[in-house]
Specification:
This protein is 76% helix and 0% strand. By secondary structure, it is an all-alpha fold. The longest helix is centred in the middle third of the chain and has 25 residues. The protein is elongated. This is Four helix bundle protein.
C-alpha cells in the first residue's frame, strides 16, 4: 500500500498494476462468506482488467482501437468501485476499502480525460 496518497506513480501502467495488486490483497482477506466469495472473484477480475486493458491500449493498432481500450479501462474501474462498495469489509479493512474506491475513482477520471483528449 502506498503510505502517502501523493506518492502515486506517474507511470499509469505501474499505477494500474499497483491498484490491481492492492485490490487482490483486499479481496483475498475479506471474510469467508458466500456473497464475499463471488464479490471477491468479480472484484479481482475487474481490478486486474483495468491494467490489462491499459497495456492493450498502449499497443493499439489505431486511434479508434486505443479509445475503445481506454473506455474499457474506465468501465472496469467503475465496475471495481461497485464490487468494493458491495463487499462486506471488517472494521480493519474499511480504510483500505475507501482508499481503493478513491484510487478507482481517480483512475476513472484519468481515463475519461484521455478519452476526451483523444477525440
Amino acid at each position: 500500500m502506498l503510505e502517502n496518497q501523493k506518492e502515486k506513480p506517474y507511470d499509469l501502467e505501474e499505477r494500474t498494476f499497483l491498484f490491481a495488486k492492492r485490490s487482490i490483497v483486499y479481496f483475498k482477506f475479506l471474510s469467508r462468506s458466500l456473497p464475499n466469495a463471488e464479490i471477491s472473484r468479480q472484484g479481482i477480475r475487474s481490478s486486474g482488467s483495468v491494467g490489462a486493458n491499459f497495456i492493450e491500449a498502449n499497443e493499439a493498432l489505431s486511434r479508434k482501437d486505443f479509445v475503445l481500450r481506454i473506455k474499457i479501462c474506465r468501465k472496469e474501474a467503475k465496475e471495481t468501485i461497485y464490487w468494493l462498495r458491495l463487499s462486506e469489509s471488517s472494521e480493519t479493512q474499511e480504510k483500505e476499502q475507501k482508499c481503493l474506491i478513491i484510487e478507482a475513482t481517480e483512475l476513472m477520471k484519468i481515463f475519461g480525460s484521455i478519452i476526451e483528449k483523444s477525440k
